[in-house]
Amino acid sequence: IEGEGTVEQRVISSPKASEYPYGTIVELTPVPHSDWKFVKWGNDLSGSEVPVQITVVDPVNILVVFEPIPYAWVLVKTEYRNYSLPSGEWSETPLGEYSHPHDFYSYYTRQDDKRMEFKVTSPRGRTTNDPAQFLHGYYTWDAPPTVINPDEQVNIGVNQEVLSNVTGGYISRYSLRITMGHPWQMYITEPAHVAENEYTAVGFGAPTAQFTTESVSVVFSREAWSAGTEGRQQEIRVAAGSGNANNMLYERYLYEWKQVK
Length: 261
Prior knowledge:
Layout lengths: L4 E9 L10 E9 L3 E8 L8 E5 L5 E7 L2 E11 L14 E6 L4 E7 L2 E8 L10 E9 L5 E2 L4 E14 L6 E7 L7 E4 L1 H4 L6 E4 L10 E8 L9 E9 L7 E11 L2
Antiparallel strand pairs: 1-2, 2-4, 3-5, 6-11, 6-18, 7-8, 8-9, 9-10, 10-12, 12-16, 13-15, 13-17, 14-16, 17-18
């Protein structure tokens, strides 16, 4: 036996009363100990069939291989949030469209799974002399891994699609960032000209060093959490919006330290 476990032996058919004489059919069933799993048979028996029957015609040497069941950070739930929910509450499904009218501005957001859309319109700005404003864009991203090993490098690709970037002379911006639990920011590692500045967000609107007026694809990256204790949870959170609570959207992925079966 390699690893931790036993093998149950049951005689299916025997021509005589003595133990395992010629022609005896024996059924073998591996029984791993707690936190271990059966992997395969070895030596004179191959494969991983369970149970397995052998006919004794010659002396046999059978190896049974067990391995410990590994622990990892396992995705257990995905949740969503916008301004319409009470503080601290999350939804199990995306929250769809949400509008927030204002005297001078009209905010619109739409939330789908792994997609967030934003729009702000200001037909005449704060006064009749101000220029109009129209920002419109959306973000999509790759699903994070369902299983994350301790200290594994986690990469999440994000696409920013800018449909309109008329700022009207204001400093309004929309941006997206990803965290892996406070205060663990994920950094943009691709493309190279962005990665060298270690930016933690991608955005559009009024241009700055790390915000663009164009559509762009980037990769957020960070080393994952170390090993935990059974039942402990961590999260990856995607947050996007202008910083104004009225048009912020969130999607979070909850992970639990548990056995990977």
